[in-house]
Amino acid sequence: MPSSSLAEVFIGSRLHLRMLAQRIVGTLDLAEEVVQEAYLKVVERASIEVVGKPQAFCSQVVRNVALDHYRRQKVESTYRIYSDDGELPPVAGGFTPDQLVQDRRMLAAVDQALDTLPARTRHAFELYRLSGMTQRDIGKKLDCSATLVNFMIKDAMQVLMSCPVLRTGMAD
């Protein structure tokens, strides 16, 4: 029966086929997976048609499966991150998901605290802290003195420092 002879040829040349797969995928573990998958394809195919050159056929199937694995690895490596311990790997920027949640809570608390300020004071603080503008430039923009801008920034900082959520978060 052709299918058993093809399976026998495959099993008989298993070491050669594994080396062929390993040259393509790189590791012995992946090569074993490739050979197992290729064996299933060979046996399935052998039941459908007669193969003239079983050794060449088995080698070609292993090569095709190995190339598929290699290509899949290349694509997955561009968007997947693996860690050795099974934990979630750090996200871009070195932050863990827990840190990101905590940072978002802190930003929400900052936003709520700044909402208690007059709009002009908040705007002056944001221009100073977020845009990096000088107090003199902020004064020109808001049509007030640099001294008044200094007091507005000081008032905003006092509101932020008095917020309990922000005090505990800043201590971490």
From TrEMBL:
Keywords: Sigma factor, Transcription, Transcription regulation. Residues 17-74 form the RNA polymerase sigma-70 region domain. Pfam families: Sigma70_r2, Sigma70_r4_2. SUPFAM superfamilies: Sigma2 domain of RNA polymerase sigma factors (SSF88946), Sigma3 and sigma4 domains of RNA polymerase sigma factors (SSF88659). Residues 108-158 form the RNA polymerase sigma factor 70 region 4 type domain. It comes from the Bacteria. Belongs to the sigma-70 factor family. ECF subfamily. This is Pyoverdine signaling pathway sigma factor PvdS. It comes from Ideonella azotifigens.
